[in-house]
Amino acid sequence: MFVLTAFVAGLALLLMGNIAGLFYAYSVSVVPGLDATRADHAVAAMQQINVKILNPLFFASFMGAPLVAAVAGVLLLGSGQRTAAVLFFGAVAVYVLGAFVPTMIVNVPLNNALLAAGDVTDPARAAQVWAEFAPKWAPWNHLRTLASCAGLLLTGAGLFVWAGNR
User: Does residue 70 surpass a pLDDT of 90?
Assistant: First the structure.
């Protein structure tokens, strides 16, 4: 049971790190970089990013992080590691409430609206489309970044506590 728990807990840490890093990269480079370019280029680039991100590797981290962390919490709880389990469950709660839910209710609808704008070549229209998207999307991504980083820290703390109790 130890090997299974160690594998699942380590995988949870890796997946939390992956998704925290992804959201962090958007916050510190992708959106600021797109903001610094012409609006028609920003719209076209973000439309393609939003299409290409829908892939198995993204989904493995985005949906896998909370699922695997929850499984690790259950395994830890089953082996009497209550404090470590609570930390993993806390990571799940923080991630789901601060990253998963905002993604589903804010970021994805904004992504879909941006995609629905189609090929925007008129500079004035592109500026309007980007202005309707980026200022709303970016703050919610910052929240997703913070929540994912908090989930990562809680997962790491859970592993640390578990290791200290062995």
Answer: yes
